[in-house]
Design brief:
By secondary structure, this protein is of the alpha/beta class. About 40% of the residues lie in helices and about 10% in strands. β10 (about 440-450) and β11 (about 455-460) form a beta hairpin. The chain starts with 7 loop residues before the first helix and ends in a 9-residue tail after the last helix. The structure holds glutamine (GLN). Glutamine binds near residues 130, 153, 173, 174 and 176. The site of glutamine (GLN) has 13 residues, from loops. Belongs to the amidase family. GatA subfamily. GO terms for molecular function: ATP binding; glutaminyl-tRNA synthase (glutamine-hydrolyzing) activity; transferase activity. This is Glutamyl-tRNA(Gln) amidotransferase subunit A.
Amino acid sequence: MNLHTLTIAQAKDLLDKKEISSVELTRAFLDRIDKYDNTISAFITVDRDLALEQAQQADRIIAKGENQAFTGIPVALKDVLCTKGVKTTCASKILENFVPQYDATVVEKFKAQDAVLIGKANMDEFAMGSSTENSAFFVTRNPWNTDYVPGGSSGGSAAAVAARFCSGAVGTDTGGSIRQPASHCGVVGLKPTYGRVSRFGVVAYASSLDQVGPITRDVTDTAMMLNLMGGHDPKDSTSAPEPMPDFLKGIALFKEQGLSGMTAGIPKEFLSLEGIDPEVKTMFENARKTLEGLGVDIKEISLPHTNYAVAAYYIIAPCEASANLARFDGVRYGVRDMDANDIMEMYKKTKSKGFGLEVQRRIIIGTYSLSSGYYDAYYGRASQVRALIMDDFKRAFESCDIILSPVAPTPAFKIGEKIEDPLTMYLSDIFTLSCNLAGVPGISVPAGISSTGLPMGLQMMARHFDEMSLIRAGYGFEQAVGKHPDPPEL
Ligand code: GLN
């Protein structure tokens, strides 16, 4: 049996039946990482011994019959989640040696079920980027074609799932960083509703937009992971005291009722945008037909402020980032530059050497936009636009249950293609940003392969806290399109 090909649900079933052990499963992934991660570069840190120790512990729990959903399941974590005693770098030189004293709540939840934390995944530095090229350490490659980016910023997590280096992975999504790499790597990625999953212990990029979520092989695994990760956390004041349903019910719902009675909206502004690859358009048209075939009532809707989303996001996110990253000054946090004569010089050298160019760019844009005299013109304006975008979604969801769009305007691009041109890079986030600005949940489900052999994802968004509809429709869609092909063998 090829253990690395198992989904979380399949692996759990075999672990429960004691047909495989967690040590065997973990070894299968570790062996693949040993063999192929020098090509893909999905991981910043892999602690083989620690992973095997956790797997042995899981096997002891399973022997006692005390297993829970994730006992013995090997999971990768984006390197932005604090892990007690294990380096957490945010793919930044400034945190190169940072070893947290505590676990993020999400990490605690995996540990409480004796999951195996197989490694810390590469990312764009501080989650700023769409290609993982902004990692201070190395570029992650797309397992479908190693000349291409895996997307970002959770590119290491998505590539690790696609390359079968782990059963599932955790990412974060501030403007698309779970959905877009999932789309580019042919896996499923879900950004939960803002407040659904605790951000405690997750190094903050833009606090009003950041959400933690799953990246998995299929929608069933996404539901399982959301079940584990979600829920109110008193340690995060922005976490919502909302009830946590069993998201696997979304799958049962589909099995009982299909998608009949569900209404989906397609924003007319999305498809008239410039720069959408014809193959993405075809993929989207086919996806629409598939959903229609499943009984979904599809209608045109309007999100009138779509055109302002990129501009608003690229002010709000850098503003929040400039405040959040102020703590990395070589005094409170961060590797201090010792070659300075006074404190100002120390700050300057620490930040110039510690932060990469994109992070510096965001800090400068954010600081400028928040400075007195410019605050109203930039941050104030962008916040007003955000309110309008939220209203757009509220109104749209009066007439539909889910909103459909492509995840990205093009399939994955070549490594190096956009990195010199930040504006083009920012524009490629057009379909994913509004979801974060509005705080609603969004999922990316594999929906086709381009003629160049690269995957493309369909995005579905739903009302606040209605991830259930995304699981139901995502599962239905997945069943209808049939098994997604695996990436070519590495
Ligand atoms: N690409 C967007 C950015 O660079 C989104 C990143 C994210 O979701 N973390 O900010």
